[in-house]
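Below is one such protein, fold included:
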Amino acid sequence: MAKSLAATPESLPVPGTSSINIRVQSDVELPRRDEIFSAITSGLREHFSQTRAGTYRQVDITVSVVEWNWGSLDTAVAIAVFGRINGRAISQTFSDDRSTGAFGKMGKLGESVLTPNAKREVSQVQQECLENCLDKICVAMDRAAGLAAPVHSKIWSVISVGVPLVAGIAGVLAVFMTAEEGAKGFGTAILVAGGVYLMLYFPALAFMPTQFFRVDPRGRRVLARSGVKNLVAFRVLAMLVPVVVAAIPIVAYSILHSDRRRANAAPPQAGEPAAAQPVVGVAPTVIPWRRDAVIDDLPRVGNAASETGDPLPERTFHSQSNEMDFGRR
């Protein structure tokens, strides 16, 4: 049986709104049900307060938690919304899931998901899934209320799809170009894809319109998770991320080659042969010769004649200018 907690219109004061009635319920068993319901209500209240006055004239919807998965391999949250907004019907289900398998067991993502008290606690990854679902609900309510998709929303959609796609392609190309296999190739793909993702994602955030961080729930969530309250400081830090990412391989390359140079310049250890050193102070022997001198074409019998003891055949060197004639007379 579904348990519900209704939020009355008086609990959601929104300027320019005539009527708001939101009911929150759950079709599944929830850990800390009242806290989850309160988080949903607070998220919707914040969105209504940030929206332009008069956008939501009449709201009568039901928000129902239809999935709350705390499995050991993945975490999933799904919330359904149905009702009417400004006379328009809305009926959609929004979900968000995160993988908490091998990586989750080693990090904080799966820390509380895998504990025996998981059914009585709300993990950090479950909280993030819930917040992402609320962001999707707010965007859908804006569309149902008749708001046209702003420019920053379209830009964010392109960033959300394009940046991971480009990063994945870069990782695959890096593996093919380096011809590495096995775990080394997989590590190369991860490093390249992660670096490209960071170098594209953060500069894109830095140039996002201001309204994205003030009005759009996804932008507000990004700014809140960064821990930076000042938008200018956030933009500066976002632009510094690709600089740091690009500097890491350069510094690593410099350190590696400096170590190699020092190793080559170090004296040989005991038992190791010394490297050949050039002879200093002895000038090389230079035989002067005319550049335009040629050698007559003679049979290559020099080796055979020398083996029999006979004298080698004469070779006459002629100058192309006919100025000198060398030979044995």
Observations:
- The radius of gyration is 38 Å.
- The chain has a mean pLDDT of 73.
